[in-house]
Amino acid sequence: MANFFDDKILYNIPNKAKVIVGIPSFNNSETISFVAQMSAEGIKDFFQSNGIIVNSDGGSSDNTKEVFMKTDTNKVPKISFDYIGLPGKGTAMLSILELARCVEAEAVVFFDSDLKSIKPWWVERLTTPIINGYSDFVTPFYVRHKYDGTITNQVCYPLITSLFGLAIRQPIGGDFGVGKEMFNIYLKKAQKCSQTDVARFGIDIWLTTNAIVHSNKKIYQASLGAKIHDPKDPGADLVPMFTQVVGTLFDLLTEYNYIWKKNLDNKIIEKAPIYGEVLEIQPEPVNINVENLKNNLKKGLNNSLTKELAYKYLDYISKNSTISIEMWIDILFKAIVMYSQTKNINIIKSLVPLYFGRVADFAQYTQEMNEIEAERVINNQVYLFLEKKEELAYIIKKKLR
C-alpha cells in the first residue's frame, strides 16, 4: 500500500519501466512543459522510450498538472498526481521513489520543474553510472554563477566535504539520479522523518548524506553544463530554505557523528568522479543586494542566540557588517556542537543573519572576479574548513560522545 500517493494511479501506468523521470512541482505551469518535453526526448533517445515521466504535485492552483498532461511527450507515458503527506518538495520526491519501486524501475531521475537549461542528454548523464553498475546515486555538476547557490557554497559543500572527506560540489543541486538499491533505504528511513523538514527543502541534503553513509557504491557527479532556473537573492528569498536545509543537515551530522568523528584528524579529500566532459559555459548572472545582506545581519544581532554564536567577533561585525570565512567556520562548528546537544531549532534560525554576513563578505571579496576565480575561492574555503576541523577536534570529540 502506498504511503505518499493513492495506489489507484498504478492502474494507469505500465507495470515496469527502466527509468522514471520525476518532476516535483508547485505552481510551475510556465516551465514544467519544457522540462517534460526534454525529459521525453531523453527517454526516447537513450532508453528507447522505456520510461515514464511522473509529475508529483503539491496542489498547484495555476493548472500545473493540466499543462503537464497536455504536453506532447512523443508517446512517452506520463502521469500526474497530487502526493499525500506534508506539503513540500521532499514529499513529492519520496512519492516518486515509491512509485518507481512499484514499477521496478532501475533508476529515477529528478528534475526541478523550473529548469530552463535542461537538455535531453541530462537523462543519460544522470543514469549511465547507475545503469552500468558504478553508482546508486548521481549528483549534478553545474557551472553556476558565483552568487548562485550560496547555501551550497557557504554551508553544505564545505561541511559535507570536510567532515565526510568526499567532495560533492552540488550536494543540494536538485537534479539527481537514484539507483534501485537506494529506493528501499530512502523509503524505510522516510517513515521516521516524513513530518520533518526532509519533506520540504531538506530533501536534497538528506538524499546526498544518506547516500554517502549507506550506498555500497561510489557517488558520481554528472556534468550538466549550466543550471538556469529561477535564482533567488539570498537576502530576500532564502530564509525558509536555509532553515530547512541547514536544520536537516545538522540533524544528519548529529545522527551520523559516529562516522565523521573518526575523520576529524583526516585532511584527505576524495573527489566524487565526474561523468561527462565539464563544459566551458558562461552562466547567467545572479543579482545580489549586499547592503540588504548587511542590514539583515545588523538586525539579527538583536537576537541573543545569534550574539552567543558570534560573541568573539561582535566588535568586528559591528564595524564591518560582514563575517570572514575564518569566523564563519568557527561559528558553524560551534552551532553544530550546540545543536547536537539540544536539537533547538532556534540555533538554526539564529544562524541566518550570520549567513547573510558571510555571503556579503564573499560577494565583496569576489566582486571583480570571474566565475573561475570565484570558484577557486570557494574550493580553497574547503581546506580552511579542514584546518579548522583539526583545531576544533578536541572539543567536538569531548562533547559529541
Mean of the pLDDT scores? 93
Give the termini distance in whole angstroms: 40 Å
Spell the H/E element sequence.
EHEHEHEHEHEEHHEHHHEEHHHHHHH
CATH top level assignment of the largest domain: Alpha Beta
Tell me the number of structural domains.
2
Strands ordered across the widest β-sheet: 3-2-1-4-7-5-8-10
Tell me the CATH architecture of the largest domain.
Alpha-Beta Complex
**Total beta strand runs:** 10
Which percent bin holds the helix content? 40-55%
Sheet having the most strands: 8 strands, mixed
Instruction: Using the alpha-carbon principal axes, give the shape.
Output: globular
Overall structural class, as computed from helix and strand content, comes to alpha/beta
CATH topology of the largest domain: Spore Coat Polysaccharide Biosynthesis Protein SpsA, Chain A
3D structure, described in words:
Helix content is 51%, strand content 12%. With 401 residues, the chain is an alpha/beta fold. The protein has two domains: 269 residues, Spore Coat Polysaccharide Biosynthesis Protein SpsA, Chain A (Alpha-Beta Complex), CATH 3.90.550; 110 residues, no CATH class. An eight-stranded mixed β-sheet has the order 3-2-1-4-7-5-8-10, with helices on both faces. It has a two-stranded parallel sheet with strand order 6-9. The model has no long low-confidence stretch (mean pLDDT 93).
